[in-house]
Amino acid sequence: MVTIKSKREIELMRNACKVVAILYDELEKKIKPGMTTLEVDKLAEEIIRREGAIPAEKGYDIGIKGIPPFPASICISINDEVIHGIPSKYRTIKDGDIVSIDTVALKDGFNGDAARTFMIGNVSKEAKRLVEVTKQAFFEGIKYAKPGNRIGDVCHAIGEYVHSQGYSVVREFQGHGIGRQMHEDPGIPNYGKAGRGIRLEPGMTLAIEPMVIAGKPNILELDDGWTIVTEDGSLAAHYENTILITEKEPEVLTILKK
Length: 258
Ligand code: MG
Prior knowledge:
With about 260 residues, this protein is of the alpha+beta class. The chain has a single domain (about 5-250), classed as Creatine Amidinohydrolase (Alpha-Beta Complex). Helices cover about 25% and strands about 25% of the residues. The longest helix has 24 residues, at about 5-30. The protein is globular, with a radius of gyration of 17 Å. About 50% of the residues are buried. The mean pLDDT is about 95. Magnesium ion binds near residues 102, 104, 113, 115 and 240.
């Protein structure tokens, strides 16, 4: 079911989303080569809790036998890892890495969800272009996130832009509605046909999240049951924000207002 948030619920969504916005602002300044991914996780958890929220990914259980609940506060995926990487004390961030972080803050019953790919030190030109295209794909998509348009218009715009840049979108994972639940309807793939799917209405809150691969779109899941990597070993990037559909332009809730 697609939920339409009331005025009060929108305020609570704004508050939850602001926690994630603050988190990424701080992480951007603090992530350095030599840190382990577990150190980044601990830092992120401290910031989320300091802001009065709970890291909603910690203990998240997808309900499949044999796959343990997610053990950390953030997903952290480096280079050819696409999403859902597990923080580890054995994994060190290096100069030149691209580091994708995805997290959800739960505050007063509502979820804020966003992801960024951070460029660490001197990254290659190709990696930089991938990160920039992935971010731009989000903004190309939300040009269509207006009342009267359909969700397929957003999906189509993201896919078309990514493909026009010579990259692939991940097909097995998608954006989603968000609110009291981390994942609500509708599903929001990063490709699709314009003019299809639900009609957008003010009060909908949606997590739009291009996951882009520099090479072929095929992915693999590692034995940990979580980490998704590119099959061909090429780089991947992720950029996500939670947005609010309004009467006019969408409001991006997980970027701090200047
Ligand atoms: Mg997310």
